[in-house]
Amino acid sequence: MAKNLKNAGPRKHEPLVLELIPENLLREPIEYIFADHYRMRQVMATMDRFLSEGIYAQPPTDDDVKADMAVIRDYLRDELPPHIADEEEDLFPCLERNSPGDSDTKQILATLHQEHEEDFALLPPLIAGHDDLLAGKPVAKRDLFETSVIRFVETQRRHIIWENNIVLPLARRRLSAEDMEQTGRDMAARRGLEYPA
Ligand SMILES: [Fe+2]
Ligand SMILES: [Fe+2]
After folding, report:
1. Yes or no: is domain 28-190 CATH 3.90.600.10?
2. pLDDT at position 106, please?
3. How many Å lie between the centroid of ligand 1 and the Cα of residue 97?
4. 191 CA to centre of own chain
């Protein structure tokens, strides 16, 4: 509070707050994944803004910027890998099993799988860059960091559109109640959570 009173000007942007997904939604795992896509979009939008406004060019001195950067770093480090695993280990194989002879779906899932592989290649430079900035240092490999941010934001936006508009609607139609429960149980276990009663 004291800080807010001291800093006369209002902040220009809302703080980046990623709402926790209610654990009950694990019973509807496709909606859980859909909710996570919304959070990812918030992360992408802030990364895009930090890059275009030159905020990534030097370590942040503003506490609000530092807080947003930590949210981004924590999401990339702790939340994106299990999200990708939800899709790679549960949702996609399940959808593929339930879509015999559907070569279009197979092709879309193959493309999304390749993009997940690329995400895993981009994550180390992205996380290292945020770690440097949060430690008060300029990014050690700045060119690699900035090209990774650009590539990541650009591919993720398209990736989420394909998943939200094609893969999730297909999964809602094609996964059985048992598939949904198994997927939700695996997602809970991946996060160290109890499957909701
Ligand atoms: Fe994905
Ligand atoms: Fe996704």
Report:
1. no
2. 96
3. 18
4. 15
